[in-house]
Design goal:
Blueprint: E1 3-9, E2 18-24, E3 29-38, E4 47-49, E5 61-67, E6 74-75, H1 79-90, E7 96-101, E8 106-115, H2 119-122, E9 134-139
Antiparallel strand pairs: 1-3, 1-4, 2-3, 2-9, 5-8, 5-9, 6-8, 7-8
Amino acid sequence: MSRCWLAIADAAPKDATAIAELEDVAGARAGVLVAWSRRSKPVRNALRADPRIVDPAGPAGWASLVLVPPGVRVAFDDLAVQQARRDVLAHPRADAVSTLLRDASHFDGAITLARGEEGRVRLHDDPFARVFPARMLRLGPGIIGAPPAPVGPTIERYGSANPWPWDRFG
């Protein structure tokens, strides 16, 4: 089984699946967003993401990046996290969204993406930014695609590490 890992780095590693330049809202370089498709964690600060959002041919856009502060642990089933997930599903404003994880039961952040110049405006009310503060970043091309919207149910889980399949019913 392959997993998808995301991390911000100063420079692009050679073993990455996809890479995009990052800028802050003032236009200053903020590093690169790196994605890896592999089973093992590639770097210490990498977090697991939904592999469907990664597309090396993806266009540029804006990213709202929410990260849990160091030393803080938040259960994925925490009511604030679940409400943010419900709000994302109820009011789609983004082209791609993924929660970020270190393990199967803790929320470590989220990345929400929107295309075009109006993308920053659409991300103004990122539901995950109500859980922890968001960092708004301009994302270069080459890392994030636009996966199809989930058919649901994506909130419910059966077992700690087993989300319901969002794209089919068995």
